[in-house]
Fold this sequence. Notes:
Elements: E1 7-12, E2 20-26, E3 29-36, E4 39-44, E5 58-60, E6 63-65, E7 72-74, E8 79-80, E9 83-87, E10 90-96, E11 99-103
Antiparallel strand pairs: 1-11, 2-3, 3-4, 4-10, 5-6, 6-7, 8-9, 10-11
Amino acid sequence: MNDEERWTDVCGEGDLPVGQGMEVVVGDAIVALFHDEAGWHALSGICPHHGGPLGKGSLKGCVVTCPWHGWQFDVRDGTYQHSDQLKHPTFATRVSDGRVAVRLT
Ligand code: FES
């Protein structure tokens, strides 16, 4: 697989307003995609607490709050807000020709 084939188109730039997130499926993975003032961010969509849907969490600034029990993560690097020892997996994003793509590996 070449580098270009690792990217998966997930949505258009206009599909997700700044300050919101959504779930997308990339290969076999559920990915939480967020759009903040700085750009686009992707992390594993499965909350490490009890599997809640992080892509359906609320985004304030660069922090998402899991809708199930309120765990919070920095969407830029996956840092858990109550312990920087826990990092939730993040994925690369890019915008090209108005389309947003995610790369898992
Ligand atoms: S499942 Fe996310 S905080 Fe509990």
